[in-house]
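Morning!

As promised:
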Amino acid sequence: MKKVSISDIARKAGVSVSTVSFVMNDKAVKMRISREVIEKVENVAREMGYRPNQLARGLRTGKTKTIGLIVENISNAFFATLAKTIEDEAKKYDYKVVYCSTDNDDEKARDLINMLSQRQVDGYIITPTPELAQEIRKLQAENKPVVLIDRYFPEFNEIPAVLVDNYEGVAAGTEYLVGKGYRKIAIVTIENEMAHMKDRLRAYYDVLRRHDIAVDETLVNIVPYHAGRDKSLQQIQDLFKGAGTSIDAVFFLTNYLGVLGIEAIKNMQIRIPGQLALLCFDDNDIFRLYTPTISVIRQPIEAIGQKAMATLIERLKHTGSEVYPGADPIQLLPELIARESI
Amino acid sequence: MKKVSISDIARKAGVSVSTVSFVMNDKAVKMRISREVIEKVENVAREMGYRPNQLARGLRTGKTKTIGLIVENISNAFFATLAKTIEDEAKKYDYKVVYCSTDNDDEKARDLINMLSQRQVDGYIITPTPELAQEIRKLQAENKPVVLIDRYFPEFNEIPAVLVDNYEGVAAGTEYLVGKGYRKIAIVTIENEMAHMKDRLRAYYDVLRRHDIAVDETLVNIVPYHAGRDKSLQQIQDLFKGAGTSIDAVFFLTNYLGVLGIEAIKNMQIRIPGQLALLCFDDNDIFRLYTPTISVIRQPIEAIGQKAMATLIERLKHTGSEVYPGADPIQLLPELIARESI
DNA sequence: GATATGAACTAAATCGATTTAGCGAATAAA
DNA sequence: TTTATTCGCTAAATCGATTTAGTTCATATC
């Protein structure tokens, strides 16, 4: 049994295809279709279970009512929550979301943009990879609205971006550690050349300097992106060996690294916060449930998703009519959640 | 700047649209297009950044190279991993996956099927909700392959299903508890009328009976699906009050409930496994990292995803040509991971 | 020299919708 | 009675691809 099309309905109802289209799109009144015909068509459509083909509709109208969401990794709790928020938000505006992960690979990101472009999505929300600026410019040139999320390109502000205030978050966290009397504060971050991570690191340096604490570069630990689980864990455990002597606190700059940190303390049986204080950027179920509970800088994920979506919708509404004036990224404030690990 | 279409390429290259189509689809040789023309077209297409419109292609060919994946909740770790596996697997066969969540709501599930159907996906992988059988039959009638995942309808086997062997998993878990000497074994399960959960519960009863352990119905705790976090937690804490006296072990039948169990032991400071032994169906990061580590029955998520995808692809290949003979659900064996909580 | 064969392309139908322009009948205005 | 309007609906173009059935030359065959 084949799917029913608009012409099947037209034939069965004894009217033209156009009439069916008008009725299905609530333009019947405007086109002064008579009450009887409207009812006839609606009945036939219901009986036959007619569902308009969105490919045909999209082809004709140039709108698919779909937006493409590109994140780094959808199985990461942060991005999963973000995706869910965006999807819920999109539904309010009657848009559907298609999402996919880059794994922070430029090549993969380009492929995904390609794929979404071929599928004619109406707009994009993108967590960019380092070299993606060119590709995103092309989308703008094609008049497709784009909103960056979680990351941004400081050198070009033609594209709106929504993210947490990374600098403020890490500054607040570092201040908190300093305020609690810690001086030998180690940092664990992931290798990433992008601005949002530089902002985080910069905040750390600035706060130490502000308090006249000498910066010890051996305390700045950068985990290679492709190190793999075991190697990364090892690097953290090596750092932890100095607990109580060369370091007294560790600030993890990402969620993923913080979880590895927990594995490390578990493996090494380090007393937290006795021997070592712990703080992590970005919350996670585990941090709330672990013993001791882990203090975090919480990102306002829902707010980020909502703001990004609202920005995109705004641009979707008057697409082409006006050019985005360019603006600084929208940076939302994070929240310090003090738990037992400090 | 508008997007480039096939006719733009044709015009610029000075050939017909058909010729461009043949070149782009590697049918140039078969259609004996000359080497020069092929190169000309390829160059023009590359220069202009041509990317075929998949809506048009899908409309014409009737194939979108897309499959719809419907899960219960994409932000749940089990389904997130499953989705990732299926996506990776799909890519091998050159298919793209669109996924969405039902929240176990029949109405929502029907809407999602509708939406995917309108978008002309080629096939479906569905975690069904209780009343979804009719809707799925319609898809079959339209000649769209469907594979059920994680759950199934015992009363109709016309649709292939791939899932863990729930009965065996819970049987093995219960046997393990009994073998360790526990006799007052409580069960915590979620309210769900579907076969896979009934299978889990049935296994519990069967094993107790096999060991001549009297079943105490007060030990069987069913958490209402829409109870909400706090109420569910309360129900588990109420159960835990009997630790050491009326109960000596608790078997959580889902991941989500197990995590609540951890919150409960944390809140109540219960010694595990001293006062109470814990076992959970379906693994989770937290279970591996918590102190004590929690023993689990691990589902073979990757295998389930792969098998489901392979089954779907098989049906996609000869769509329409033959009817699925009908078969029992494919049930894959889970693995008991013994940790410290028993 | 007429005809058949083959090489290298192209025209046009098609998929299923939307949308503009227009047609015939009924009614109103002149 | 003729002309203009309004009503209620339809024909046909269009979106951007794929695909079948030709068409036009050039060459080979008899």
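The two ends of chain A are 66 Å apart (CA to CA).

Hope this helps with the figure draft.
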